């Protein structure tokens, strides 16, 4: 009887540990499958976007496409200007709402390439960048690391490779509204999750 009780207790403890386990990113695993799907108007199914294409998804066509819980994201950021801070806040709010596992790397203006490398060394599912000063460092590093997906918010990089997706619009200081920045992270991750990568999502209509 006592032995049976011990087995039951051990089993219950193991179940509890599995349910409450914290993902410390120490183990590799396949990228989890996304939830939902892209809606009508995100892309034209009869004419898939070509590399470096600029596409204009219909507002809200990304709303049903979400990452799986625990999706690993590194926020790579630099700059204290209002547009960058608004984008950064949008990423953090999105991560909380979608139960995304988020880590942040803040780039030193004196060594931005080191920050890009540090973000990659964390081996996330996706690196999201905010801050226009990261454009040149990303252009230098990303072509040599095609197995790492990047999402650039609020700007673009020249000649992006297939692992770099951007969300941009006609940028003015007052165009970085809270609603547009929230749409940018959601639309951008929806594209990456569904392999619409290496393109620019243009959100001028939002």
From TrEMBL:
Keywords, in A-Z order: Signal
Q: Which residues form the signal peptide?
A: 1-17
Task: State the name under which the record lists this protein.
Answer: BMP family ABC transporter substrate-binding protein
Species, as recorded: Actinoplanes couchii
Q: What is the lineage of its organism?
A: Bacteria, Bacillati, Actinomycetota, Actinomycetes, Micromonosporales
